[in-house]
Design a protein that fits this description.
Layout lengths: L8 H13 L7 E9 L12 E9 L3 E4 L2 E8 L3 E8 L24 E10 L2 E10 L6 E8 L13 E13 L1 H8 L18 E13 L4 E11 L2 H4 L9 E12 L1
Antiparallel strand pairs: 1-2, 1-12, 2-3, 3-4, 4-5, 5-6, 6-7, 7-8, 8-9, 9-10, 10-11, 11-12
Length: 255
């Protein structure tokens, strides 16, 4: 559950480029997806759902989905280790809202790192760590317990519906928070104080669902709540809500 507020074409272009270069898997599928989400951390943007379109890919080693691009390079019975490329944060421009007027553009992140998925009796435990190499240059890390596996499984020949509870923590370094929620001295106004962001830890709880309805159609969704840390809530750009609901629904057509 990340702090994003609208889709950006840069991440989708990166994903498509990598996927087209790595199509040599023995068993692989391409899909076209549509995702509707309400995730929005800025107070000057409304809570209307945003629609994003993308291309998905599922293979033996290489996968591309809503959570990013991953390549599995270590696999064992109870765990897997993957290289990961994703986008954890969307930026903004001055034209996006009145509260951004006079501010410098914040770019969408491109986050590179790794992820480990461990199978346990209570579901998968997922740990990840990434660095934004494009915008903030900061680090993020997270731990997620339970929920649905990070990338879509192949069609098994049978209709399946899975629902699982999930929870975890998300760490964002000082550079990440300051880049997306900080206000420089040169950007301060009478109605927008200067603000220096600090590192933040965001806990969350939720429920995730995945349904493979046919060979070609799958649905995903989650509903949850995050507890916004003071390092973000205190920003004049952020919504002053201690708890923030998060919901999204995704549809994929597989070829």
């Amino acid at each position: 559950m990340k702090h994003t507020h609208k889709p950006k074409n840069l991440t989708h272009l990166l994903m498509v480029t990598i996927s087209l270069a790595l199509t040599a898997n023995a068993y692989a599928d391409f899909g076209i997806s549509a995702n509707v989400a309400n995730e929005n951390g800025y107070k000057d943007l409304d809570d209307k759902a945003s629609l994003s379109l993308g291309v998905e890919y599922r293979g033996d080693k290489f996968n591309m989905g809503k959570d990013g691009v991953s390549y599995e390079f270590i696999h064992a019975d109870n765990y897997a280790v993957e290289a990961l490329a994703t986008s954890n944060n969307s930026g903004f421009e001055a034209k996006d809202g009145k509260n951004f007027t006079g501010m410098d553009k914040r770019k969408t992140s491109i986050d590179l790192g790794g992820r480990m998925i461990v199978k346990t009796g209570i579901g998968p435990v997922t740990l990840d760590a990434t660095k934004d190499v494009h915008a903030s240059k900061g680090y993020e890390a997270g731990i997620k317990v339970g929920g649905i596996a990070p990338h879509a499984p192949h069609w098994t020949g049978e209709r399946t519906i899975n629902v699982a509870a999930t929870g975890g923590l998300r760490y964002q370094s000082k550079k990440v928070v300051d880049y997306y929620y900080g206000v420089k001295n040169t950007e301060a106004t009478a109605n927008r104080n200067a603000y220096k962001g600090k590192s933040a830890i965001t806990p969350y709880l939720g429920v995730e669902a995945q349904a493979d309805l046919t060979e070609h159609i799958s649905l995903t969704g989650n509903l949850g709540i995050t507890r916004q840390p003071n390092a973000i809530r205190n920003s004049p750009l952020a919504k002053d809500k201690k708890y923030q609901p998060v919901a999204n629904v995704g549809f994929t057509y597989w070829f």
